[in-house]
Each structure stands twice: as structure tokens, then as C-alpha cells.
């Protein structure tokens, strides 16, 4: 029987002690990582359907990577892709290969995560992805109504990549979203896909997630919205959906968005026996100044770690200290310090 990943009551102690006084600031969300089953298939999709460009293609193995990912005997191929100013890391575990995303996965499951790909024209973007026979999650692109003031006029559409990962196309009208999504040059040069605005995660409690992301990691809360109505239901493909959506953002990189389903409530919990090579595994890389200090604080607070220890790695003249930890609902975060 699958059980909910949880943290101990010590988290409450640390939230009271450090609330409003984060002791290490995440300076950058470096990349959003997605585990894939067949790298070449995924590369073809992301580059040809969505306009991503390949930046690097590297195989990794050895003890430090085994300790970081929590998997013995791994060999993994990691391809970094860029869209606009943002990056994703596709990871194919060559020697292991985990479980596929369940066919009955829903948008309100706590394992849910997506990236929101900003588009200059929703109609053109929708026609482009349809050429690749994507599986729809949304019934069609939805325009959010006046009854959701924080999101009024935003157009969005959910669909699946070849491994059934959730992706979102999102269009921001003037006055919504970051200023970077509105320059006229994007319309002039014909670009459809502009970059990644955020990665969204399913959460059971906004308050518990805020303790992890804001109070400990120092990622700042930027705003919130209460979304419901037929457009939201058909966007998420969850009947009766009513969500509390909260946005957090570091100084650079995509934001992190909490999706708390007030109705019908959270779906299936994140599987307790999840591994980094399971296809539903995402891992978001966060850059900060003092990895060891945060590692110790999270350990004391009772959070669950994927990494076996704080891992030192050396490559291309760079020394990093990193670990992978699960948030209160099971989502994986690579916390990385670049040692100077």
C-alpha cells in the first residue's frame, strides 16, 4: 500500500524559529530535470515540437553520482536543453530504468509537476503541438475569465510529452506575467515558444510547502490566485476543480508554483518507494550559497533525502556540494552550492 511521504513535527519548530528570516537564499533556479525512458525520442519531441536547443549531452557514472541520486550502479545520460533564458535537463538512466507514469495519473495527484512554456500566440502553438499527435490533458486551450482577477485573460493548455509528463502552454496578455514575456520583438521574429515561466507542483498544504521553500530555502512568495470555474476544470481536466495557486520565485530562473486543490482535494500521494529513475521523477536544481548549512538544517528538521550524503563533485574546474531532498509532498529538489 502506498503511503504519504511526510516530515516530522520538528518542521513546525523550525518554521516558528526561522519564519521570515531565511538563513540561506536560493539565488537561482538553474534547471528543471525530467526523467525520460528513451532519450532520442524525447530529444526529437522537445527540439522539433517545442523549439528547445541542445546545449550539452553527457554520460555520468561513478560513486559520487550513485550517492547523489541514491541509486547503486547507475549510468545516466543527461541532456541539457535551452528555451529562451531557461533550461531543462532530460535524464535517461541507461543501466536501470524505472517505472512508467501510471495511466490513471491525474492533475490533482501530489506527484503532479509540469513546466509552463510561454507562447507568443496560443493558436499557433496549439496547432504546432497537434502536429506531433500529443495526448491532450485539457479539452482545448482555455482563456481564464474575469472571475479569476489575478489570471484574467491568460490562455493555457495542458498536454503530455511522449512519456506522459505534463506540460503547459501559457500565453500572457499585457499586464500579466513577467515583463520579459511581452517585448514586441518576439512577435516580429515569428517565435512561437519563448521560454519557461515556472514549474508547477501539486501540494497538500500551501503552508507546509511555504515552510520548506520560503522559510528554509529563502525563495520568495510573489503572489497567489484562487482559481475555479468551468475554464479551470477543463484546463486541469478535474471536475469541480478549485485551486489555491501560489507563486514563488528566486532572483533568476523559472518560478515554482504551488497547486493546492481545495476541491476535490488532493489525489494520490507521492509513492513512498519512488526512485530517481522512475519516469514520474522530476528534480529541480536550486543554486544557493551554503549547501552544508541548509543540508544540516533540513536533516534536523526531518525532511527525507534521496542523496546518501552531502556530495562533493569536481569537474571542469568547478567544485560543487550538492544533495537531493524531498519537499513535504515528495517533490525532489537538487540543492547545489558552487564552492568558490
By DSSP, the count of extended strands is: 16
Radius of gyration, rounded?
Answer: 19 Å
> Main β-sheet, in a few words?
8 strands, mixed
> Quick check: average pLDDT?
91
Can you tell me about this structure?
- With 340 residues, this protein is α+β, with helices and mostly antiparallel strands.
- The protein contains eight helices and 16 strands.
- The strands form two sheets. Strands 2-3-4-1-13-16-15-14 form an eight-stranded mixed beta sheet, with helices on both faces. An eight-stranded mixed beta sheet has the order 6-7-8-5-9-12-11-10, sandwiched between helices.
- Helix 1 packs across helix 6.
- It is globular.
- The termini are far apart.
Please give a handful of descriptors for the protein shown.
8-stranded mixed sheet, 2 domains, alpha+beta, 2,3-Dihydroxybiphenyl 1,2-Dioxygenase, domain 1, 8 helices, 36% strand
Brief summary of the model shown:
The protein has 340 residues and is α+β, with helices and mostly antiparallel strands.
Helix-strand layout with pairing:
Elements: H1 10-18, E1 28-36, H2 39-49, E2 53-61, H3 63-69, E3 75-83, E4 86-93, E5 113-119, H4 122-130, E6 142-143, E7 155-160, E8 166-171, H5 184-188, E9 193-203, H6 206-216, E10 220-228, H7 230-236, E11 242-249, E12 255-263, E13 282-288, H8 291-301, E14 311-315, E15 318-326, E16 332-339
Parallel strand pairs: 1-4, 5-8, 9-12, 13-16
Antiparallel strand pairs: 1-13, 2-3, 3-4, 5-9, 6-7, 7-8, 10-11, 11-12, 14-15, 15-16
Helix pairs in contact: 1-6
